[in-house]
Every structure is written in structure tokens, then in C-alpha cells.
């Protein structure tokens, strides 16, 4: 893991641009948000090119605030995490992608009328990656990628928007979550999907018939109530999902 090069990236056929465009049209339904999401992801690509455990200094941009969609203008908390593709070698083609679906873009900061943008687990920002509480997924991701050379990880949320407002996210938006996930799967074409936590597993189970790849459940690693031994097992299961896909790929290529 020491000295591993890490990139937030895209593929040659620009999967991420297509994903963000789809999410923008389905959830935000305003042209300006497509431009904002694409620009924000490109900025993350430029910022996240570093060698573990080192990296760029804290750039202070773990969360970016933009105007919330009109229908959420009077909400004090609204969060959205950009789906994120992470790889270890920018110059070599990706042999396969493991998709990790977590729960939601949880937020605590209150800025009325603002939508807070970040990456999955704040991965693009050093202050989050190196925080033992907030960045708990960082070493897990590195370990997983190390066991599977040529494999990339695609991280996304099953619930695309988050709020603590008692009104909740509008049902007209939550009904679209399955549609978005199916679109992401169609574009990313993962060899394996890890449902990270019960919420993600419940939503993915509803569309399992249309998923043409292995679905692997792993308890949410960041659960503060989880016993140490259960967390260690969850991490092992997470990493093994990557290793198994890599081994299958090797066997297939030798046939």
C-alpha cells in the first residue's frame, strides 16, 4: 500500500461524464446542474493525483456549496456526493470495475438554500482521507485496489440526496433512485456490485433481476455500533470481493 498512486479519474469512453449527465437530467432536471457537476468532477480529477500515504496539502474543498434546486431552496441541509471512479494507474486500461453502493451523502452543516457537493466519503480531500473517523474507508479502498491490479472502484450512493429536514426528500425524487442506479450499472458495466450496508442492499435487491453481475452484501463499515471483530470481517469481505473478481479475470484471460 505504501507509495500507491491514486487517481480520481474517468475511462477512455468517459463513463463518468455520462453518469453525471444522467443524474443531472433525472434528479436536478436543470441544465446548469449538469455543467456544475461535470466541472466539479473535473476539478476533483485535477486535485486527486497523489501517492499514498502522502498527498497534496489540505485544499479546504471537501465540500463545495452551490445554490440548491428551487424546490429545496428553504431547506437548511441538503447533500449530494458525486459518484467517484478511483484507479491506481492512469496510463493502463481498466480491466474491470467493482461498483460500491453505499447509503447516502450524509451532512451536518446548515446552509439554507445551498446544496453541498462532495465526493464519496470525501475521498478527494486530504483532510477527510487522513481523518481516522471521517476517512475510515480510505485504507479499505487502498487495500482492495492493491489486491486487484487493473481494477477500478466506482463509488456511489443509493439515496442520491440527503437532508435532515422533517419534510424529507420529495417523493418525486426518491422514486427516481432505482432508475438512476440502473442507469449507473448500465453505463459502468461492473463485474461485481458491493451493496455497502442494509439500505443499499434493500434498494439493490429490488432491481437484482436486471443486474447482470454478482451482487455482494457487506455490512456498513462505518457503523459506530459495530463490534470490532464484525468490522474486521466486513473489511475482509469487502477486500475479498475485489480479489475474487481479479482472480476470475485472470482465469478467464488464460482460457
Provide a short characterization of the protein structure.
This protein has 255 residues and is α/β, with parallel strands linked by helices. It is 38% helix and 19% strand. Helix 7 (198-206) links the parallel strand 9 and strand 10 (214-218).
The N- and C-terminal alpha carbons lie at a distance of 30 Å
Molecular shape: globular
Strand order of the largest sheet: 2-1-5-8-6-9-10
Mean pLDDT: 84
β-strand number? 10
Question: What structural class do helix, strand and pairing data support?
Answer: alpha/beta
Helix coverage percent of residues? 25-40%
Number of helices: 8
What does the largest sheet look like? 7 strands, mixed
Radius of gyration: 17 Å
Order of helices and strands: EHHEEEEEEHHEHHEHEH
Unreliable parts: none
How large is the share of residues in beta strands? 15-25%
Write the layout of secondary structure elements.
Elements: E1 5-8, H1 15-28, H2 31-47, E2 49-51, E3 64-67, E4 79-82, E5 84-87, E6 96-102, E7 114-119, H3 126-129, H4 138-147, E8 151-157, H5 171-174, H6 177-188, E9 192-196, H7 198-206, E10 214-218, H8 228-254
Parallel strand pairs: 4-7, 6-8, 6-9, 9-10
Antiparallel strand pairs: 1-2, 1-5, 3-7, 5-8
Helix pairs in contact: 1-2, 1-6, 4-8
How is this structure best described in words?
- The chain has helices at residues 15-28, 31-47, 126-129, 138-147, 171-174, 177-188, 198-206, 228-254, and strands at 5-8, 49-51, 64-67, 79-82, 84-87, 96-102, 114-119, 151-157, 192-196, 214-218.
- The chain is an alpha/beta fold and 255 residues long.
- The strands form two sheets. A seven-stranded mixed beta sheet has the order 2-1-5-8-6-9-10. Strands 3-7-4 form a three-stranded mixed beta sheet.
- The longest helix is centred in the last third of the chain and has 27 residues, at 228-254.
- It starts with a strand and ends with a helix.
- The model has no long low-confidence stretch (mean pLDDT 84).
Amino acid at each position: 500500500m505504501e507509495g500507491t498512486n491514486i487517481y480520481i479519474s474517468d475511462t477512455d469512453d468517459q463513463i463518468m461524464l455520462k453518469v453525471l449527465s444522467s443524474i443531472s437530467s433525472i434528479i436536478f432536471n436543470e441544465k446548469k446542474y449538469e455543467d456544475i457537476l461535470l466541472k466539479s468532477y473535473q476539478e476533483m480529477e485535477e486535485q486527486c493525483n497523489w501517492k499514498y500515504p502522502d498527498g497534496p496539502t489540505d485544499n479546504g474543498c471537501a465540500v463545495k456549496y452551490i445554490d440548491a434546486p428551487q424546490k429545496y431552496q428553504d431547506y437548511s441541509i441538503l447533500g449530494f456526493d458525486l459518484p467517484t471512479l478511483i484507479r491506481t494507474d492512469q496510463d493502463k486500461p481498466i480491466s474491470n470495475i467493482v461498483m460500491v453502493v453505499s447509503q447516502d451523502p450524509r451532512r451536518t452543516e446548515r446552509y439554507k438554500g445551498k446544496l453541498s457537493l462532495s465526493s464519496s466519503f470525501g475521498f478527494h480531500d486530504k483532510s477527510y482521507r487522513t481523518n481516522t473517523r471521517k476517512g475510515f474507508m480510505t485504507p479499505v479502498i487502498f487495500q482492495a485496489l492493491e489486491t486487484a491490479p487493473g481494477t477500478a472502484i466506482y463509488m456511489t450512493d443509493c439515496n442520491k440526496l440527503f437532508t435532515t429536514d422533517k419534510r424529507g426528500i420529495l417523493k418525486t425524487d426518491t422514486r427516481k433512485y432505482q432508475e438512476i442506479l440502473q442507469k449507473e450499472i448500465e453505463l459502468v458495466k461492473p463485474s461485481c456490485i458491493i451493496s455497502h450496508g442494509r439500505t443499499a442492499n434493500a434498494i439493490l435487491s429490488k432491481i437484482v433481476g436486471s443486474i447482470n453481475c454478482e451482487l455482494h452484501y457487506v455490512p456498513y463499515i462505518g457503523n459506530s455500533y459495530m463490534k470490532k471483530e464484525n468490522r474486521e470481517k466486513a473489511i475482509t469481505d469487502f477486500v475479498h470481493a475485489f480479489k475474487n473478481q481479479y482472480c476470475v479475470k485472470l482465469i478467464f484471460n488464460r482460457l
